[in-house]
Amino acid sequence: MLARLAQRRRRPMPDEAIHIVALWNLMIVLIPFLLLSAVFSQTSILNLYLPPPPKAKEAGAAGPPSTPKPVVSIVRDGYILSDGPTIVAAIPLDESGGYNTRKLNELLVAIKRELPDGSEITILSEADVSYETVVRTMDASREAVTREDGRSVVQPLFPTISLGQIGPRSSQPVGARR
Question: Which residue intervals of 21-97 are DSSP H helices?
Fold first, then answer.
């Protein structure tokens, strides 16, 4: 038995080397695969403009007549569509309690027929209106998809969008004094 123990001690232990060839092969295949399959984010940029400040009219100077510019106000009860001082339409919330962008789009198509050269629109919203609602309203006012000869046709409406915010509502009726 002592002889066996002595043989075990004399037997050389093989050196354990780390073989990284398999790891390098994996990296050589994996890195190009990941680079080729990566989805690069596609960001679309939408140019928005603030409404210009009102110009002071000089006494006796009459400028060219201004074309009405549509204004969409997003309020708690739905949309209010106007051409400045005159309210054109009020669009209430739909049955599910959401904003009716389809109806807004139809009314903007009708306005675009009356103002074919118009490309500007102002979108005003209250402070508590969600971001998604503002984006859906912008999408509905930029273009309309119509069906012609069995094909979907994109019709540009008002691509130049100005954003603004409606001030807080007053709890007093209009004309009441403090």
Answer: 21-37
Q: Tell me: the pLDDT tens digits for 68-110?
A: 789 999 999 999 999 877 888 999 998 898 999 999 999 999 9
Torsion, CA 94, CA 98, CA 102, CA 108, rounded to 10: 100
Q: What is d(CA 92, CA 109) in angstroms, rounded to the nearest whole number?
A: 18
Q: What is the chain's mean pLDDT, rounded? A: 79
**Cα 49 from Cα 118, distance rounded (Å):** 15
Calculate ∠ Cα 168-159-157, nearest 5°. 100
β-strand partners of 87: 82
Q: How many CA atoms lie within 13 A of 67 on its CB side?
A: 12
